[in-house]
Every structure is written in structure tokens, then in C-alpha cells.
Predict the 3D structure of the following.
Amino acid sequence: KNTTQRGQLLVEASKLTWVSGDQDGALIHLEAAVEADKSQTKALLPYFQTSIEQSPDHVQAQALSARLETILLRAKDMTALDRFWRSQLEQATEEGDKIRLSCALGDLHRDELQRPESALAFYLGAADAVSSPKSRRQVVESLFGLVEQDNQVKGSEAHLERIIREAGYWNDLERLFRLRISRSQTPAEEAQLYVELAQLQIEHLDNVE
């Protein structure tokens, strides 16, 4: 009860501090409120988002975003983090931000929220945001994390293979083939996969240093 009251008082203090014009002081009070009572994370988002939107440059906005992310992760409020990252993704204009946020959301939905279908959608969004197919390293690693899970999403392997081939990540394609071999159900299926793997090595891997 005492921690809840302390959290509520600090939230009220942050509102008054914000109104007085001291945004940074208000954010400090909000951080302290969450430290005292993790349920106070709901009070964080509107203030931090306003500060981010009013930031004079991208560097400061990124610093504020990272600060809020750290608080929400420490408080284990994945729903609030999901809401924050979604709002940031909607406003993102730079390619790097779109890829980072899409992959972060995918990882969050895959590992914390247990929503593999929406995780796949975020990863594909990240892949679409990349101007060059050869710059999809982060997307491939995140998608591999989804494909390697037991409860695979239908189509995830096919999407991963397409992205790998477009990027020319032949070592990753070998990794995918070996994963398929480990999961093969029949000797005939396993034999066909070994043939495909051998063909890949001849065409793309033999000359790789």
C-alpha cells in the first residue's frame, strides 16, 4: 500500500512539474513513480511521447525512447512497450528506425506476448522497409528465431527462404536446409533435402572464402 501511495504521489508531482515547464524533472518523477510502483507505467507514455515528439533532434528523441524502453522493460510491462513501439513505428520516417522497431515488435510478440502470427507480420514489414535486399541481416536473424520455435507459423519458412535468397545469404540458406533435415519425417524427404543442400554448396558455397 505504501509503495502504491508513493507511486501515485510521484505521478502527481510529475504532472505539476510538467505544467511548470520542467519536462525533464517531470520525467525523473515518473521514473521514480514506476520504481516505487510498477503499475504506474500507464502514466509514463503520454508524457514521454510528447517529449519525444517535441525533441529538437533525432538523437535526443532516440535517447528519450531508449530511456522509456528501459523503464518499461524493467517494469516488465510488455503491453505498454508494445503500445509505445507501435506508436513509434507509425511515426517513423527513417529506414533504420522502421527496421529496428519492426524487428523489436516481432521479437516482443514472438518471445513475450506469445503471438507468433503477428510476429511474422512485423518481420515481413521490416523486410519490406529495407531498400536493399542485401541489408536484411537483422530481419533474417529475427525470422530464424521464429522458424526455429516448435510452434511454427504457417508460411514462415517459405518467407525466410525467399528473403535469404533475395539477399544472397547463402550460408543462412545452408543453415535453413540443415534445420529442415533435422525435422524431416521420412528417409525420402531427408534424401531430397541433402540433394538440395549439395546443389547449394556447388552453386554458391564452394567459392566462398
